[in-house]
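EI: anyone free to look at a 375-residue chain?
SC: sure, send it
EI:
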Amino acid sequence: MARVPFPNFSRTNPIIFDRLDELTGFGSNPGKLRARTFTPDGLAHRPALVVVLHGCTQTAAGYDAGSGWSTLADEQGFMLLFPEQQRSNNPNLCFNWYSPGDIRRDEGEALSIRQMIAALVRDHDVDPARVFMTGLSAGGAMTAVMLATYPEVFASGAIIAGLPYGTATGVPQALERMTGRGMPDTDTLGALVRKASSYAGPWPTLSVWHGSSDTTVNNANADAILAQWRSVHGIVETPRVIGKVDGFPHITWHDANDRAVIESYELTGMTHGTPLKSNERNACGASGPFFLDVGISSTRRIAAFWGLAQAPRTDDRFAIPRATPVERSHAHNPNLPVLRTVRPERIYGAAPKPGLTKGVGQIIEDALRAAGLMK
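SC: here you go
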């Protein structure tokens, strides 16, 4: 079936051609989610499946257009599943990552997503050993939910501007965690994942992405996610590789077999959103609200980490200048491991930081809306 290309997505051109199909009858769907799929014309034999979760205020088709996952699926022949939130569940279309009834195994939204995956594995001969998941913001937090509650289902995951699993079970905790405050220590974080199912490993590998200037979900959450999954994987040594990719700090941790099981990208100077690179050949996605053209393609880099595509060449001629590395403050939780960060001199690809010109009341309202807790 011929696919219609989608136009540039921006504030001045918000029109999106929907490339996705509808999946129905996939199960009891206790979370009452919608299921959208993409099947490339050149679907591989025993294809891989990538599950993609949008952020608050977004739709499945909009997130696909911005992130470019269907472009990469066309190139590489894997399937895509886009669970989609409904306003009847959350008025701001956020996945309910802090709701106890939606984040436990075999309940609510988590079970709905599991049922969608099972239907595609069965009906499209998907390779069950190559199921992957990624998401932005609330979708990133829900990705953490799925990796924790159904770890046997996923080979790997990627969390963009998300939050660790199990650290919020209601509105007050959700807001506190978004600021980076009140995070459990490393041992408790790991225990939350281990207690989410009876699974004992091997655990999914993980790629973590976060903007250092994110004022919607504080980047202390990235440290907490890394601490949580280092605990699960039993990795206590220092990172094996520390360097830069397209000008951004990149860290990997390896297991006893020297396999990279956790990686981290800190997007210095970036605010809240999915990082893109528009100047590369066959660019994935298009810039727009929460799709930030900062010079690195998270879609292609994540797929490369998963072994689904070749890593694009790093070209630091287009890298954004960075400042001298400094230690990130861990005043909120000194028990988390200290990671290297850099102080941004300038914000690229996004609006100025919220809070510089807004009052306290407006900042609180913005945080509530971002979390999906108020209209």
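EI: The domain at 21-371 is CATH 3.40.50.1820 (Rossmann fold).
SC: 👍
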